[in-house]
Write a structure and sequence with these properties.
164 residues, Alpha-D-Glucose-1,6-Bisphosphate, Chain A, domain 4, seven-stranded antiparallel sheet
Protein backbone atom coordinates (compact mmCIF):
# COMPACT_ATOMS: atom_id res chain seq x y z
CA UNK A 1 0.00 0.00 0.00
CA UNK A 2 1.25 3.45 -0.88
CA UNK A 3 1.81 5.91 1.93
CA UNK A 4 0.16 8.74 -0.02
CA UNK A 5 -2.97 9.62 -1.98
CA UNK A 6 -2.55 11.26 -5.37
CA UNK A 7 -5.22 13.20 -7.24
CA UNK A 8 -4.76 14.65 -10.71
CA UNK A 9 -7.25 17.15 -12.12
CA UNK A 10 -7.20 19.16 -15.36
CA UNK A 11 -8.63 22.65 -15.64
CA UNK A 12 -9.50 24.37 -18.90
CA UNK A 13 -7.70 27.53 -17.76
CA UNK A 14 -4.17 28.94 -17.72
CA UNK A 15 -1.96 28.00 -14.77
CA UNK A 16 -1.72 31.62 -13.59
CA UNK A 17 -5.52 31.79 -13.08
CA UNK A 18 -5.76 28.39 -11.40
CA UNK A 19 -2.92 29.28 -9.02
CA UNK A 20 -4.53 32.66 -8.26
CA UNK A 21 -7.79 30.91 -7.37
CA UNK A 22 -5.86 28.81 -4.79
CA UNK A 23 -3.92 31.69 -3.25
CA UNK A 24 -6.35 34.60 -2.99
CA UNK A 25 -9.09 34.29 -0.39
CA UNK A 26 -11.58 36.41 -2.37
CA UNK A 27 -11.52 33.60 -4.95
CA UNK A 28 -11.12 30.62 -2.60
CA UNK A 29 -14.28 31.51 -0.70
CA UNK A 30 -16.29 31.04 -3.90
CA UNK A 31 -15.36 27.42 -4.58
CA UNK A 32 -13.37 25.73 -1.76
CA UNK A 33 -14.93 22.97 0.31
CA UNK A 34 -17.87 20.63 -0.06
CA UNK A 35 -20.72 21.78 -2.31
CA UNK A 36 -23.46 23.63 -0.45
CA UNK A 37 -21.44 24.19 2.74
CA UNK A 38 -20.98 27.57 4.40
CA UNK A 39 -17.38 28.72 4.19
CA UNK A 40 -15.65 31.46 6.21
CA UNK A 41 -12.03 32.62 5.95
CA UNK A 42 -10.64 33.64 9.36
CA UNK A 43 -7.06 34.20 8.20
CA UNK A 44 -5.38 34.03 4.80
CA UNK A 45 -1.64 34.63 4.63
CA UNK A 46 -0.38 32.94 1.47
CA UNK A 47 3.40 32.80 1.87
CA UNK A 48 5.94 30.32 3.23
CA UNK A 49 5.34 30.33 6.98
CA UNK A 50 1.85 31.74 6.41
CA UNK A 51 -1.50 30.38 7.54
CA UNK A 52 -4.86 29.74 5.95
CA UNK A 53 -7.49 29.23 8.68
CA UNK A 54 -11.12 28.70 7.79
CA UNK A 55 -14.38 27.16 8.88
CA UNK A 56 -16.80 25.10 6.86
CA UNK A 57 -20.26 23.98 7.84
CA UNK A 58 -22.88 21.75 6.22
CA UNK A 59 -26.44 23.08 6.23
CA UNK A 60 -27.48 20.45 8.77
CA UNK A 61 -24.31 20.05 10.82
CA UNK A 62 -21.62 21.45 13.05
CA UNK A 63 -19.00 23.98 12.00
CA UNK A 64 -15.53 22.51 11.40
CA UNK A 65 -12.32 24.53 11.52
CA UNK A 66 -9.30 23.70 9.35
CA UNK A 67 -5.85 25.25 9.29
CA UNK A 68 -3.09 25.13 6.66
CA UNK A 69 0.53 25.98 7.44
CA UNK A 70 2.40 26.83 4.23
CA UNK A 71 6.00 25.64 3.97
CA UNK A 72 6.63 26.36 0.29
CA UNK A 73 4.92 28.49 -2.34
CA UNK A 74 6.47 28.87 -5.77
CA UNK A 75 4.31 31.27 -7.77
CA UNK A 76 2.19 29.44 -10.36
CA UNK A 77 4.15 26.17 -9.86
CA UNK A 78 3.79 24.68 -6.42
CA UNK A 79 2.10 24.90 -3.02
CA UNK A 80 3.26 22.75 -0.10
CA UNK A 81 1.42 22.83 3.22
CA UNK A 82 0.47 20.88 6.32
CA UNK A 83 -3.24 20.75 7.13
CA UNK A 84 -5.17 19.80 10.24
CA UNK A 85 -8.52 20.24 11.92
CA UNK A 86 -8.46 23.00 14.50
CA UNK A 87 -10.57 24.90 16.94
CA UNK A 88 -11.64 28.48 16.32
CA UNK A 89 -8.33 29.73 17.77
CA UNK A 90 -6.31 27.54 15.38
CA UNK A 91 -5.19 24.88 17.87
CA UNK A 92 -4.88 21.36 16.47
CA UNK A 93 -7.83 19.07 17.32
CA UNK A 94 -9.04 15.61 16.30
CA UNK A 95 -11.20 15.39 13.17
CA UNK A 96 -14.86 15.79 14.17
CA UNK A 97 -15.92 12.83 12.01
CA UNK A 98 -13.33 10.22 13.12
CA UNK A 99 -11.11 10.14 16.22
CA UNK A 100 -8.63 7.97 14.30
CA UNK A 101 -8.11 10.45 11.46
CA UNK A 102 -4.44 11.58 11.32
CA UNK A 103 -3.78 14.73 13.30
CA UNK A 104 -1.97 16.28 10.34
CA UNK A 105 -1.50 15.67 6.63
CA UNK A 106 1.22 16.94 4.33
CA UNK A 107 0.01 18.25 0.96
CA UNK A 108 2.00 18.97 -2.18
CA UNK A 109 0.27 20.62 -5.12
CA UNK A 110 1.95 21.15 -8.49
CA UNK A 111 0.50 23.08 -11.42
CA UNK A 112 1.58 22.31 -15.00
CA UNK A 113 0.24 24.19 -18.03
CA UNK A 114 0.02 22.74 -21.50
CA UNK A 115 -1.71 24.57 -24.37
CA UNK A 116 -3.76 26.80 -22.06
CA UNK A 117 -4.94 23.97 -19.80
CA UNK A 118 -3.61 23.35 -16.30
CA UNK A 119 -3.03 19.98 -14.69
CA UNK A 120 -3.02 20.00 -10.92
CA UNK A 121 -1.39 17.08 -9.15
CA UNK A 122 -2.08 16.88 -5.43
CA UNK A 123 -0.19 14.41 -3.26
CA UNK A 124 -1.36 13.95 0.32
CA UNK A 125 0.11 11.85 3.10
CA UNK A 126 -0.51 11.62 6.83
CA UNK A 127 2.28 13.16 8.92
CA UNK A 128 3.74 10.68 11.45
CA UNK A 129 0.52 8.65 11.74
CA UNK A 130 -0.08 5.92 14.27
CA UNK A 131 -0.87 2.55 12.72
CA UNK A 132 -4.59 3.13 13.40
CA UNK A 133 -4.50 6.63 11.83
CA UNK A 134 -2.69 5.22 8.79
CA UNK A 135 -5.37 2.53 8.33
CA UNK A 136 -8.19 5.04 8.78
CA UNK A 137 -6.72 7.48 6.27
CA UNK A 138 -6.16 4.91 3.56
CA UNK A 139 -9.47 3.15 4.10
CA UNK A 140 -10.99 6.59 3.41
CA UNK A 141 -9.08 7.08 0.15
CA UNK A 142 -12.23 7.06 -1.98
CA UNK A 143 -13.89 9.66 0.30
CA UNK A 144 -10.79 11.89 0.11
CA UNK A 145 -10.59 11.59 -3.69
CA UNK A 146 -14.31 12.22 -4.16
CA UNK A 147 -14.19 15.21 -1.81
CA UNK A 148 -11.31 16.89 -3.60
CA UNK A 149 -12.66 16.04 -7.05
CA UNK A 150 -15.98 17.66 -6.09
CA UNK A 151 -14.13 20.72 -4.81
CA UNK A 152 -12.04 20.92 -7.99
CA UNK A 153 -15.23 20.56 -10.06
CA UNK A 154 -16.49 23.69 -8.28
CA UNK A 155 -13.25 25.50 -9.12
CA UNK A 156 -13.55 24.48 -12.79
CA UNK A 157 -17.08 25.92 -12.82
CA UNK A 158 -15.91 29.08 -11.02
CA UNK A 159 -13.08 29.60 -13.52
CA UNK A 160 -15.51 29.15 -16.40
CA UNK A 161 -18.03 31.65 -15.03
CA UNK A 162 -15.88 34.34 -13.48
CA UNK A 163 -13.42 36.92 -14.62
CA UNK A 164 -10.45 36.43 -12.32
Amino acid sequence: MSNQIEITYSFNAPRELVFKAFTESQHLQNWWGPKGWMFHVAKADFRPGGVFHYSQQPADGEKMWVKFLYSEIVATDKIVYASFFSDEEGNKVRAPFDANWPLETLNNMTFIENEGKTTLTMIMAPSSPTEEEFKTYFSSQEMVQNGFTGTFDQLAEYLKNSSI
